[in-house]
Design goal:
Elements (H helix, E strand, L loop, with lengths): L1 H21 L6 H8 L3 H4 L8 H11 L3 H17 L4 H10 L17
Helix pairs in contact: 1-5, 2-4
């Protein structure tokens, strides 16, 4: 449990630093972290899918504009670089949660497009 809290705190700090370096985005990384924290056990191979889909759907519904989606994309890439995430599980989350997105979730995704 303490490891999970430490990981979440570290993720928040990394994302805040990333935001500060890019300036204020349309949708903050704090929202991304908040919505996707329930997914961490699953995408780090430490637990089941659990309540992850609620956060995935909330994030999908909140990111309506192109700048919002670009901001979410950049935050996700920062998270993926900071943690040992199972990329196959992360890429499969939208489908598992009933969310249809028109792009592939991958560290190589160009967030500017």
């Amino acid at each position: 449990m303490a490891g999970s809290v430490k990981a979440v705190c570290m993720m928040v700090l990394v994302l805040m630093a990333a935001m500060a370096s890019r300036g204020e985005a349309a949708m903050g990384c704090g929202t991304v972290v908040s919505d996707l924290t329930p997914c961490l056990p699953y995408v780090t191979n430490r637990g089941p899918l659990g309540g992850c889909c609620g956060g995935v759907k909330a994030l999908y519904n909140a990111a309506k504009t192109t700048p919002d989606r670009q901001s979410v994309c950049n935050c996700l890439k920062t998270m993926a670089a900071a943690y040992p995430i199972n990329l196959d599980k992360a890429a499969g989350l939208p489908g598992q949660c009933g969310v249809n997105i028109p792009y592939k979730i991958s560290p190589s995704t160009d967030c500017s497009k």
